[in-house]
Specification:
Layout: E1 12-13, E2 16-24, E3 28-34, E4 40-46, H1 48-51, H2 54-67, E5 78-82, E6 89-93, H3 100-107, H4 112-131, E7 134-135, E8 144-147, E9 150-153, E10 160-161, E11 174-175, H5 182-186, H6 193-209, H7 219-228, H8 241-249, H9 260-270, E12 329-330, E13 365-366, E14 370-372, E15 379-384, E16 390-395, E17 399-404, E18 409-415, E19 423-426, E20 432-437, E21 440-445, E22 451-457, E23 465-470, E24 477-481, E25 484-488, E26 495-499, E27 506-511, E28 517-522, E29 530-534, E30 540-544, E31 555-557, E32 563-568, E33 570-575, E34 580-585, E35 594-597, E36 609-613, E37 628-633, E38 638-644, E39 654-661, E40 667-674, E41 684-689
Parallel strand pairs: 13-38
Antiparallel strand pairs: 1-2, 2-3, 3-4, 4-6, 5-6, 7-10, 8-9, 11-12, 14-41, 15-16, 16-17, 17-18, 19-20, 20-21, 21-22, 23-24, 24-25, 25-26, 27-28, 28-29, 29-30, 31-32, 32-33, 33-34, 35-36, 36-37, 37-38, 39-40, 40-41
Helix pairs in contact: 4-6, 4-9, 6-8
Length: 691
């Protein structure tokens, strides 16, 4: 069942002789190997970029030891490992048999009673994992072997100890998006056994219908469905035990999912016998391609045939290296990527008491002075024209809208994208508007809304234009596409420099006020941080890191270019010259999904002001936290005000996901997207006036 070794593959690893390739994924390559006595094992070799991180090696060693304790009839045992090897590896019991993915591909969906019996075996295996203090984190059809004595869960190479910190560096997401839980996409370091339960629900739905409950035509659409939409369970009898169980497992809120013990109890009553085993193993599919830098968070690949559908939200997380369809991916949620339902670690320097809105002038709650509505689906990007008169928004309804801020109404709608509009930027003179989507970058006439040209078309599987930034002189458009940045002539589309170094999808790019430096953040795996680039020659200048596990969604320069802000668990302020972290602004938000530095325009207070919005991590809450924006005095670090979208007394599950100031610094625009099932509210742009 293994593919032949490639000429470049090693022939021996540790005491094992390699016999063939079994696959590849986000953590590394998997080989079929044999011990000196002829015992077959599945041997996983860790990717070099992860092996180079001392922190990863230490965590990997601890988790291998924990995984060795996992027992039970429905798991593959870890039999050997060497975390100290030049290329760390682990060996697991080799289980002959097709994967669930292969069985369904060859024979089609299973009947409901067989799915229930299958689920009982998988749940028992998960219970064994969880009882050892581990979370599997990559349960999917390709990691369930249908053996002669029942299903076996494989691939403990990415299992994660509950009492340990993040296994990979900032923003790393381990798993396959179509089967990940919402919290794993948004806050990968905070996964719990409830995340595996969500994956179990997706696996059972796949077994019963032949496709995942969140399948879509591209990675961004999958993430959007996982984090924001109800599962598609067509083909499972509504009201039956399987339908009820799967829906409970797929609850967006981890606390609403049944624990593994409850899942096993419910399945044991219905499914006392093991699932049927295919008479003959279906032929092995071609070997899975190795993990590749993404695309994503707008951010990951599906394990089954794609179906049409809406596109997704991107930030979060941030997203790291992606793999192709059916391969495990190590991605942080950049589109991801936004951390949402999880509970991120407390940021360093966070005050013991969380700031609360009060009645004093300094803490007054400020309501919007205007609201712009018109998009039918979530808004994901926001841009303000250089003269401050117009605002552009792009969304998952595949439209780009231009708004007249003076009149407070829509000016026109640009239609022409074939997928969600994920990024937007104005030309320096305001005459041209640029918008990016999956595999395309378009230019529009900002006066009429007419399409000018397709500036770029991309062919990579994960090439979506996740972020855009225009240089101050208007001569360079920075395009974040996949895991790279292209410095492009905005008139011709010619790329003069390609900046490479990020290992995950791009989250944000920003030019310094003088245009000489570009800052970028991505959903990197293995290595994270804020990268600074020389825009003249495309060379890397430095990478800003604080040594912690941070996942940055956006980055921006102060008006004078001396300070850089990046948001995540709080807003970090960095001194550009020294590369040192000078301050962290923290508030009641668990994760700040968006932030902006106030321009030093005429009529403003003259103070350095930073704003930050909570983002999707709070979208399921019924209080106002998710739809609030914090305003800080950047010089003192004090919280000056809290802005609230809508009536503070009216419960509304919604989140501020993007922020932008007008050039004069007087008006702040914020995108407010409602939670699923809050359709009456609809997406909108909230406008505040600051003193």
């Amino acid at each position: 069942m293994a593919e032949p070794l490639a000429p470049s593959d090693p022939r021996h690893i540790g005491p094992y002789q390699l016999e063939g390739r079994l696959g590849a994924g986000g953590m590394g390559q998997v080989f079929l190997a044999a011990s000196a006595a002829g015992r077959k094992v599945a041997l996983k070799v860790i990717r070099p970029e992860l092996a180079d991180a001392a922190q990863f090696r230490a965590r990997f060693a601890r988790e291998v030891e924990a995984a060795r304790r996992v027992g039970g009839f429905h798991t593959a045992q870890i039999v050997d490992a060497d975390p100290e090897a030049a290329s760390p590896w682990l060996a697991a019991e080799y289980i002959p048999g097709p994967t669930l993915q292969q069985v369904i591909a060859a024979q089609g969906p299973l009947p409901a009673d067989a799915v229930l019996r299958l689920g009982a075996g998988i749940a028992e295996g998960l219970a064994a994992v969880h009882n050892c203090g581990l979370v599997h984190r990559d349960l999917k059809p390709g990691n369930v072997i249908i053996a002669a004595d029942g299903p076996r869960i494989i691939d403990f190479g990415i299992a994660h100890a509950l009492d340990a910190g993040p296994m990979t560096h900032t923003g790393a997401v381990i798993g396959t998006y179509a089967y990940m839980s919402p919290e794993q996409i948004r806050t990968p370091a905070q996964v719990t056994p409830a995340s595996d339960v969500f994956s179990l629900g997706s696996v059972l739905a796949f077994a019963a219908t032949g496709r995942g409950p969140f399948d879509a035509s591209n990675v961004p659409a999958i993430i959007h469905r996982v984090t924001r939409e109800a599962p598609v369970l067509t083909g499972i009898a509504e009201g039956g035990p399987l339908h009820t169980l799967v829906r409970h497992c797929l609850a967006k809120d981890p606390a609403s999912r049944p624990p593994t013990s409850e899942v096993l109890r419910r399945l044991a009553v219905t499914a006392p016998t093991p699932p049927p085993v295919p008479a003959a193993h279906p032929p092995m599919p071609p070997p899975m391609p190795p993990a590749m830098p993404p695309y994503p968070p707008k951010t990951p690949p599906q394990a089954t045939a794609p179906v049409g559908g809406r596109t997704i939200q991107r930030r979060s997380v941030l997203l790291g290296g992606l793999a192709a369809a059916t391969a495990a991916v190590a991605v942080p949620a950049a589109f991801l990527l936004w951390p949402e339902d999880g509970a991120p670690a407390e940021p360093k320097g966070k005050p013991e008491e969380k700031p609360k809105a009060g009645k004093s002038p300094e803490r007054d709650i400020t309501r919007p002075v205007g609201e712009l509505k018109g998009h039918e689906e979530d808004i994901d990007c926001l841009a303000v024209s250089p003269d401050g008169r117009f605002l552009a928004t792009g969304g998952y309804d595949k439209t780009l809208k231009l708004w007249d801020l003076t009149a407070g109404r829509e000016k026109f709608t640009c239609e022409g994208h074939t997928d969600a509009v994920l990024s937007a930027a104005f030309g320096a003179d305001g005459a041209t508007l640029y918008s990016g989507a999956f595999k395309e970058l378009l230019a529009w006439d900002a006066n009429s809304g007419a399409a000018k040209k397709k500036l770029a078309a991309y062919t990579g599987e994960f090439d979506y234009v996740s972020c855009l930034a225009m240089s101050p002189d208007g001569k360079t458009l920075a395009v974040g596409v996949g895991s790279r940045i292209e410095l492009m002539d905005p008139g011709t589309g010619r790329v003069r420099e390609t900046l490479e170094g990020h290992t995950g999808s791009m989250n944000w790019v920003a030019f310094s006020p003088d245009g000489k430096t570009l800052a970028s953040v991505g959903a990197d795996v293995g290595k994270s941080g804020i990268r600074l680039w020389n825009t003249a020659n495309g060379r890397s200048l430095k990478t800003l890191r604080d040594g912690g596990e941070k996942n940055y969604s956006e980055v921006a320069f102060s008006p004078d270019g001396t300070t850089l802000i990046a948001n995540g668990p709080g807003v970090q302020l960095w001194d550009v010259a020294s590369g040192k972290l000078t301050r962290t602004l923290a508030d009641q938000h668990e994760y700040l999904g968006s932030a902006a530095y106030r321009p030093a325009g005429a009529g403003t207070s003259g103070k350095a002001v930073v704003v930050g919005g909570g983002g999707y991590i709070e979208i399921e809450k019924t209080d106002t936290v998710g739809r609030t924006v914090s305003v800080w005095d950047a010089d003192t670090g004090k919280l000056a005000a809290t802005l609230v979208a809508g009536d503070p007394k009216t419960p509304l599950r919604a989140a501020i996901v993007r922020l932008a100031f007008t050039p004069d610094g007087r008006t702040l625009a914020g995108v407010l997207n409602p939670a699923p099932n809050e359709d009456a509210a609809g997406p909108s742009v909230q406008l505040w006036r600051l003193p």
